[in-house]
Amino acid sequence: LGVRAEDHGYPEWVNQLSSLKKERMEELRDNFEAQQTWNEFPRSFYLKHRTTETVQTATLATVMQHLNLSCVDLLEIDVEGYEAEVIDQIDFPFRYLNYEYCLLRPADDVRLLIALEAHGFTADRYDQDTFAWKVGDVIEQVFANIGEMSNEAV
């Protein structure tokens, strides 16, 4: 946005809304309009004050090649509903993956879970995110230990 939302009586989180494609923000706004948080932020305000900025982008493969990396431990993706498009372009060069699923289109959500499984990953959901790891990774034991500790505390 080209203005500070709170100066117009709207929540501060409105300032953080962004996307690589303006159509995606319009789609998100229209799809989630019935939710309480979106009702605080009218479409007319967004359309009046939105801005467009051209930015340079690079694929994950290009960045990894530039940094001479063959793998990363944790890949975090939060691109306002475009997680599927990002993950479609990568060769799964990570040990762990965390991505926001709450804004994904349902078909993309299912497709990503299937792709992760096909590449030997298992996934778990928490809050608005999906955390994935290779089956057999040491983190499975960590999760099991946390579960055991939680059960003992009850």
Kindly summarize this structure in a few lines.
The chain is an alpha+beta fold. It contains seven helices and four strands, in the order H-H-H-H-E-H-E-H-E-E-H. The model has no long low-confidence stretch (mean pLDDT 81).
In terms of topology, how is this protein built?
Layout: H1 22-31, H2 36-39, H3 43-49, H4 60-66, E1 72-77, H5 83-88, E2 94-100, H6 106-118, E3 121-126, E4 129-134, H7 139-153
Parallel strand pairs: 1-2
Antiparallel strand pairs: 2-4, 3-4
List keywords for this structure.
alpha+beta; 4-stranded mixed β-sheet
Describe what you observe in this structure:
This protein is an alpha+beta fold and 154 residues long. 40% of the residues lie in helices and 16% in strands. The chain is built from seven helices and four strands. It has helices spanning 22-31, 36-39, 43-49, 60-66, 83-88, 106-118, 139-153; strands at residues 72-77, 94-100, 121-126, 129-134. The model has no long low-confidence stretch (mean pLDDT 81).
What value does the average pLDDT take?
81
**Fraction of residues in H or I helices:** 40-55%
Q: Say what oligomer this is.
A: single chain
Low-confidence stretches: none
Look at the helices and sheets and give the structural class. alpha+beta
The SSE string, one letter per element, is HHHHEHEHEEH
Largest sheet: 4 strands, mixed
Total count of helical runs of at least 4 residues: 7
Total count of strands: 4
Strand line-up in the sheet with most strands: 1-2-4-3
Principal-axis shape equals: globular
- Rg, Å, rounded: 19 Å
For the termini, the CA-CA separation is 47 Å
* Proportion of residues in extended strands: 15-25%
